[in-house]
Amino acid sequence: MRSVLFQIGPVPIRAYGFMLWIALVVGLALTLRRGRRAEITSSHIVDVALYGLVAGIVAAHITSILLDLRYYLANPKEVFGLWTGLFSRSGGLRGLSFHGGLAGGVLATLLYCRKKRLSFLRLADLFSPALALGYAITRIGCFLNGCCYGIPTNLPWAVRFRVAPDSSVLTLPSHPTQLYAVVSNLIILWLLFLIEKRQRFTGQIFVSYLALYSVYRFLIEFLRRGVTAEIAFAGLTQAQVVSLLILGVTIPIMVKGLLLKSGAVQQCRDARRAHSGSKR
Fold first, then answer.
1. C-alpha count within 13 angstroms, C-beta hemisphere, residue 113
2. CA distances from 280 to 212, 267, 269, 271, 272 (A)
3. Model's pTM, two decimal places?
4. Which of 98, 101, 146, 237 could cross-link with 56 by S-S, CB 3.0 to 4.6 Å?
């Protein structure tokens, strides 16, 4: 593990922060390229990326505080010190929640689209592959940093992580769930590109991303719970509960969108009307 990649003078450049910025740059470049094909101006893309980033970080930090209130009550300075609170006691990310950040970014994009009279769903479709790619890149930073690892395992690819950044004490051989996340989200990226080729309705890419990410997150949490993911309700982690809620919303939207586009819903309505007319 290498939590500090290098130093610029007295300033340490940490693995997670470095990979996060790489993810932002690569994600923005991908979205700008896709925007040219979709005929969406680069100024709108950059604006949404900046507003979404700021709103996402703030919302992610607030969500993290609410989910880990006991820690922040014991360490009140970190409530207002986002930068110093980015890394946890175990060397992992502290102060940012992905689900909270996603919600903040979505809200900022909605407000921007309303002000500029743009289609939110078109922009959401445009940015979704970048979210999957950026998440995969960021999890490389998690692996280098030694955070977000899984439960102990005897599998041959198990990895021992430091229990704290400057500690020589190592965990038991554990699931490298960060690398599982990298592979999973690259697969999600590939699936999004496949879905895009057969896109049936506006917003399908975004809704598909939310559903696919939620499936991945729900499953991966079983390998993290009790170690780097706290159990919240009925044996499920906080992320698993949120993932189930997202799936409960996105799956009906996808089914309805596909049925409407195929004309199946209209055929059912016509059949009902014909049936009710015959009764009269």
1. 17
2. 47, 20, 17, 15, 13
3. 0.86
4. 101
